[in-house]
Amino acid sequence: MSRTPAPEASFVDLLCPIFHRFRFRLLFGLIALLASDLLHFTLPRYLKIGVDELAQGIATQQRLFVLALYILLTAASTGVLRYSWRTLLIGFSRHLETTLRDQLIAHVLSMDQTFLDRRPPGEIMAHASNDLSAVQLAFGMGLAAAADVVVMSIVAVLFMLQISPQLTLTAALPLPLLALSTLLLSHALHRRFERVQAQFSLLTEFARNTLISIRLIKGYTREEQQISEFGQLGRDYVAFNIRAAVIQGLLLPVAMLTGSLGTLLVLHSGGQMVISQVITLGEFVAFISYFAMLSLPLATVGWSTGIIRRGLTSLARISRLLAAESAVKASLHPTPQTSILQSRPHLSLRHLSFVYPGTITPALRDIDLEIGPGILGISGRTGSGKSTLCRLLVRQYPVVEGSYFFAGHDVNQLELNLIWQCISYVDRNTSLFSGTAAENISLAKSDASLEEIMEVARLAAVHDEIMAMSDGYETRLGEKGLRLSGGQKQRLAIARALLADRPILIVDDALSALDAETAQQVFAALRTKQRGKTLIIVSHHVQLLAHADYILLLDQGRISEQGSHAQLLAHSPYYRPLG
Predict the structure, then answer these.
(1) Whose CA is closest to 24, among 32, 12, 36?
(2) Full DSSP string of 414-432
(3) What is the separation of C-alpha 427 from the centre of its chain, rounded to a whole number of angstroms?
(4) With contact defined as beta carbons under 8 Å apart, do 130 and 200 qualify?
(5) Which of 291, 323, 355 is the last residue of a domain?
(6) Helix (H, G, I), strand (E, B) or coil at 57
(7) φ, ψ of residue 358 in degrees (nearest 5)
């Protein structure tokens, strides 16, 4: 098993390509920030000149007007530059958010079923919403504020040193307090923000489950319990946020205390230096102005630290998700696929066994099986391994090398997309999305014409029911096909598979919600459409299995019996009662 990289290493790997892609935006943003801060720090110099000339009695109205004009132009230029760097740097954060979201969705779509079994959809939704928002804020306003603090602090200190190194050192005496407190509080913030984001994932998953199970909840009158449980999750989320806010709230007062202590020291020491004529009154006023400019960004250290720490915590969560590897791996040296796609692939299982991750009991044991063109029926008691076998055939889970051969090639040496392009899989838990009926049917063939969609809908015996809907094939079906019955969902999924028209079609108990007559009608269409190809039908109905060329009976993950319908009907104690 590969070791998950450290978060810091992941950050570098994750962010470097994005920073490189937008390097010019960042460069110009930083240049504009540096220029605006440099211009901003020239203002106290004009103030120093004016105060010194007034103190010496050499100031004129014209001279003061020129200084005021310089101040006005400098302030205007600073405003333009400040707008520019904020637009460039905060705009970068939006590009960063979009890029990470695209990477996250692409990564999730590339993962196998094992990954999805470990991470509920609500957790992934929390990554794509709350975590990404925190990252965007951290690398937008947080990064801009932090950069501003660094640049303004350096420039302010340089100007202050130019006036008086001694007074600058005096003003810096409280700064170690700020640095130490920020460091300690930042570590505590990371732990508490991690808990906040994890709780938000639980909250999101609970809300998602509630919405998709709303009819079940109402059917069992569990509204009050759901409201109570959701309320408790919400209260825990608030409590964790308050715990984080307690730490975050300490940062600003500490920064302000540091600034106030520094101001007190500057007034005391600087006033004595003016009285002793070590510095002029104008230099003292300029120094106070520079220190005030330094104090403002220092006061935002707590705020920006909190935002950046929260963003880094969320980035670590996203990084861990993106670092997860699929257990079903694409081959490093894939077999050329052109000939396979043009053939009617033969499937071969040799001593195939499988154990679900996190369990000990094998779901499949020592399966030997040859599957070619024709109809293969599979039956068996509940939990005997029928669906597991189907999922392995479509490569939702990893298989041991040398146990599954596709068109004569070990599946571990084939591209995953190749197998997915050759097999259509319809299970009893039909997956539909909230688009139209036509969009759901044409999922695997987005350029299909309405005539093609209607043809497969007729074969699946669902055309008349779609036409009876308010907008026909343009009727929106609702989340997971909420507006459809179980049988309509299954027939819509069958129509989708027929439209895909692939060499292998697996129907995993996906006719279970149909009455016997409709099931026979749909199965007859499947046999016609798949003639010369491979059709695998999992069912408990002997009326359907009777049309299979060969039938397997599974028991506790093993092939217990096999043969034709007539053979099993004559000799199988399990199969005979089905008839």
Answers:
(1) 32
(2) S-HHHHHHHEEEEESS---
(3) 26
(4) yes
(5) 323
(6) coil
(7) 85, 0
Q: What is the DSSP string of 386-403?
A: HHHHHHHHTTSS---TTS
Q: Amino acid identity of 64?
A: L
Number of neighbouring beta carbons within 10 Å of residue 438? 18
- CA 271 to each of CA 260, 268, 285: distance values in angstroms, whole numbers, following the listed order: 16, 5, 10
- Sequence-separated contacts (24+) of 271-278 with Cβ below 8 Å: 273/164, 273/166, 273/167, 278/164
SS3 221: coil
- The Cα–Cα gap between 413 and 410 comes to 6
464 lies in the same domain as 356: yes
Band of residue 455 on the pLDDT scale cut at 50, 70, 90: very high
Put the strands of the sheet holding 404-406 in their side by side order.
364-371, 347-354, 404-406, 409-410
Mode of pairing for the β-strands spanning 404-406 and 347-354: antiparallel
DSSP character at residue 479: G
- Does 70 score more than 70 pLDDT? yes
| Structural domain total, the chain | 2
| Residue 23 token pair | 């390097």
pTM for the model stands at 0.69
Domain that holds residue 160: 7-323
Please report, as a single letter, which amino acid is at residue 390.
Answer: C
CATH code at position 475: 3.40.50.300
Distance, C-alpha 1 to centroid of its chain: 23
Last residue of a domain, one of 288, 323, 358: 323
The reported pLDDT for the residue numbered 295 is 66
Least confident span in 111-120, 200-209, 396-405, 476-485: 476-485
* Strand-pair partners of 558: 555
Note the pLDDT of residue 340: 62
